Fold this protein.
Amino acid sequence: MDDDRLTWIYSATSPEELAERYQQWAAEYDSDLDGMQWLAPRACAERCLHFAGHGAAVLDAGCGTGLVGLHLHELGVGRLVGLDLSSAMLEQAAQRAVYDELHHGSLLDPLPYPRASFDAVVSVGVFTFGHVGPQGLAGLADVVRPGGHVTMTFRDDVVEELGYGAEARRLETIGAWRAIECTLPAPLIVEDGVGADMRVWTWQVLG
């Protein structure tokens, strides 16, 4: 995979356009990433279950083809639910047979789950250019039980530029959650010309 593919994905200007681009990419998505040393899915899954514990009920928000779900399954997740904007990506995720439920939907809409439905939410590569804006963060906290966790990745170059940092701090100020971990920066995507420093962030939901 090269910069052209990422630029194409990141340049989507609406949820509809993004969904259509992932529809086109879904069949080749995993093969394009093969050998790329994309470390974010494993790293985020490990931090998620470090805090949530084995057997936790987890929502994989923006699950794509299920790369994060595969790692969560290997690490001992309990109930695993996936949500994604692209039906074609969900079809790929279903073939992994690691999800208890898969749902089609946008993280910019109210999530189709009751409040406090999950022990944790994990989200990898979703809150970034051309994808889900900072307004999607509050919905993740809403579906996690008090004391549960939200674990996700951010590229260092988008946290403040796109407003995610400001919204995360706002949610902390109003008592929705508190930050408990931010990993050291690392090239969670490893390939010449494509790599970007990313971190895994975790918040504890306060209710």
